[in-house]
Hints:
Layout: H1 2-23, H2 25-38, H3 43-51, H4 59-72
Helix pairs in contact: 2-4
Amino acid sequence: MVDGEVTRLITEAHDRAREILTRDRELLGRLADVLIAREVIEGKDLHAYVEGALPIPTAADLKREAEQKAADNGQNATQEIKPGPAIRPSAPVSESTLPDAIPARPD
């Protein structure tokens, strides 16, 4: 009896989820595109998109938004890299400063 009731509840939930996903497929696809581009959708914006109070951004809108964000972050700017300090050669080594022999290890 319990198993039958659990099965019925699961089947009803599955059928309802499938119906919602099928019925709202276009809306969910467009929202998925926004989520992929922005990574986050605020709850109030999501409600506004679903209710139609706020238009869902198009692919062109999302591309423009990403380009603007990159420009604001300075990702498109190029800047000149100044060279570091000049490398100076070591002082010349004369033969008189070198040891005659390298001592062996004491072990």
